[in-house]
Write a structure and sequence with these properties.
Blueprint: E1 9-14, H1 16-20, H2 28-43, E2 47-52, H3 60-65, H4 70-94, E3 99-103, E4 112-113, H5 116-124, E5 128-132, H6 142-152, E6 157-162, E7 168-169, E8 181-182, E9 184-186, H7 187-192, H8 200-209, E10 213-217, H9 223-228, E11 235-238
Parallel strand pairs: 1-2, 1-6, 2-5, 3-4, 3-5, 6-10, 9-11
Antiparallel strand pairs: 7-8, 10-11
Helix pairs in contact: 2-4, 6-8
Bound molecules: uridine-5'-diphosphate.
The site of uridine-5'-diphosphate (UDP) has 24 residues, from helix 1, helix 3, helix 4 and helix 6.
Length: about 240
């Protein structure tokens, strides 16, 4: 965006790890806090869509390593994301933020199906739209879905909120105290150095369509609002 102007429409990717606070299940205090921050930015006039992960319940790759058929495991992973969507919706409504959940696997009692034009309409009416069940397809990740949804519903940026890391580093900052954070990166470098941001499918989709990605720390209070306002926090990945 132009200096200080802020984005008009953003896609925020929240990992399942964030929802669980590092444990299995949903940490209501954390989700409540995220809901409060989201209400603030949506009521401030920014259109926000969210893709939630499900790693706090199941990760397909882990279950399949433990002996489960990969496709079953991936569907379990997708269903886990829907539980996070419902938790986020519940807490958003408690703070007066209207929301709609749309899922890539149909489950009419629980959520609307994914209908991109309807999602845009909700955003225009000031509703938070939460996308669940990933792409509805095994072998994909919620990061890739976040990139795809950002493109399809016309978001200006993909905001990737990380659980306790400030941005993209050249090494794991939790194990290497000399690790350096990048402020700017291009997509090709992320892919070539296999930097831990998102999977390669998600990065290459953004690269092919020039979708900028901002990677920032969710646990720093006020960071969602800063990222939405276009402040230079974390790491910016672009052309
Ligand atoms: N998943 C999938 N297809 C999708 C999105 C997700 O099969 O389009 C499954 C996959 O098994 C993944 C799990 O859902 O491990 C949870 O999503 P993810 O790991 O992306 O969540 P996060 O790491 O963000 O918590």
């Amino acid at each position: 965006p132009a200096d200080g102007a802020g984005y008009k429409r953003v896609l925020l990717k929240l990992s399942g790890e964030a929802f669980g606070g590092g444990k299995v299940g949903v940490d209501s205090g954390i989700v409540q806090d995220i809901a409060t921050q989201l209400a603030e930015v949506v009521h401030g006039g920014t259109q926000v869509a969210v893709v939630v992960g499900g790693g706090n319940f199941f990760r397909g790759a882990e279950l399949s390593q433990a002996g489960m058929d990969r496709r079953h495991a991936d569907y379990m992973g997708m269903l886990g994301t829907v539980m996070n969507c419902l938790a986020l919706q519940a807490f958003c409504e408690q703070v007066g933020l209207e929301t709609r959940v749309q899922t890539a696997i149909e489950m009419g009692q629980v959520a609307e199906p994914y209908i991109p034009r309807k999602a845009v309409r909700h955003l225009q009416k000031g509703r938070l739209v939460i996308f669940g069940a990933g792409a509805g397809m095994p072998y994909f990740s919620t990061d890739t879905v976040a990139a795809q949804r950002a493109l399809e519903i016309g978001c200006q940026v993909l905001l990737m909120a990380k659980n306790g890391v400030d941005g993209v580093y050249d090494d794991d900052p939790r194990t290497n105290s000399d690790a350096m954070m990048y402020e700017d990166l291009d997509y090709a470098t992320v892919l070539a150095k296999q930097l831990k941001v998102a999977d390669a499918t998600a990065i290459s989709l953004c690269m092919d369509n020039s979708m900028p990605i901002v990677v920032f720390n969710l646990l720093e209070p006020g960071n969602i609002a800063r990222a939405v306002a276009g402040e230079r926090i974390g790491t910016l990945i672009s052309d």
